[in-house]
Amino acid sequence: MSDTKIQAAAIDVPIEELIKEFDKDLFALVAKYHSAKIKSTSPVQAMTRGNAYQTIGMREVFLQGFRPADEDIYSGMCMAGQSFVDLGCNLGERTRIAVRNNASFAEGIEYEEFFVGVGALVNIYNKIPRIILRQGDVAQPGCLKSDYDIGACFSAFVYVQKNLEELLGRIKRLFMLETHALKTGWFHHYIATVEPYMPHWIIYDVSGHGGIYENSHRACIAFSRKKNTLLGISPTRSHELGIRNKNIRDIDIKASALFMGMFGESGRNSPQAFQALREELSTLVDPSDDKITACLRATIVELEQDCTPTRKTGFRSDEYWLQLFRGMVEFHTSGEMSLANSYLTYMRSISKRGEYDPGMRRLLLDDSAAADRMRLRIKSFFDILRTGVNSSPIVAFNAISLDCAADCGIDLHPIPAAYIITDKQTRRYFCNWFDGYHRIAALSLSGAKTARCMFSWTNLRPPFLNYDGASNKEELKLSWSDPNVRKVVELTFDQLLCRP
Hints:
Helix 12 runs antiparallel to helix 13, helix 13 packs antiparallel against helix 14 and helix 13 crosses helix 16. 41% of the residues lie in helices and 17% in strands. It is of the alpha/beta class and 500 residues long.
């Protein structure tokens, strides 16, 4: 055929048709090699690996693998604008998820060239920008050629630990680590090994092992050189993911003195007033914000008429709840959060006097930010009073099973009931650090039976803060390096999240 005839024939095929055919062939190629029965031997301990380890997204279709897809994995990690490296990336699925979470650039490193090739085809099919997958051995020096803001090692620590100091020297802000299947001593094996290079850590989630090993679990841990990098991870995941978080367990509200003791000062009529409010709210049929506001108005009158002076100021005082309820009524009546709102002005005053969370001080000085934050708090309070459900889980930090503590020789007695929470299996935990106290308060008033709590452990504070009410908040003579402390965290993690 002459050149002229070839050109004429080519013109007869619209480029759109060729693209469709190309995509179809590319999908079939990926599917073929994703499902192929192969055996690969790793360079470390000559371990044998199979194929189809990762579930991979092919636009609207997922090709199932041993590990399920997890689009939520980077929630709370502030990926936007960050450079990212995935150490031991397999087919690069979680490298691609980093790009979908707005990483400025993502690089995946995988020892097996075959997986790199299949992953590259997936990148082309999904039209993923700002990404590269390459062959490399993370266990060998010189594997990384540049620095990254965030690094991740998802169940590949057996390789990464061989070259840990050099790899972490290239990761500047945050290191995410998903363990292998948990075994006794995992705290020391993972956390104590990484801690010398990145001293701050948080255990922020649990993940399944995958495949047929449904009774095995992995821990998800983040490390950093600066405390502030980790502070927002669990609270952000609570709000962004809600009940999709996997480290959630239900807490029995009535059996947990912390939840039931949020309201009322002894020696005043307020305990009876709050109990009356709780009973009134529980009897509402089809509760609405109008009905809830009417109940709040009645409680405000009772609190205002109490002749016994309040002896407390700040959060959880009668004055605090009085101002919150006033602010809720004003917000519902006007439909907006004005700077003159009683609750907002009260919050600013106690913050200025140093009687509220120091971390909120800067926000409360900003008119717009303060109004937005108080608006969200009041709307959330209304939502929980109306539904009896907290869509954003309460975050419980450093919870310790009382049974596990006793088994490890840690004496936490006597413990005031105010620091005890109880799960649905009647297992009791010591915990005195939460994010979500207003959700706790709203749930206790709503008549709800259970509260959704998500559990995290972190060395951002010492273990087991003093609970005896001392003003200096001295810590018990324990540290995170104590073998018994490590053991009780392992046992509590297993009890709460692996054997619910």
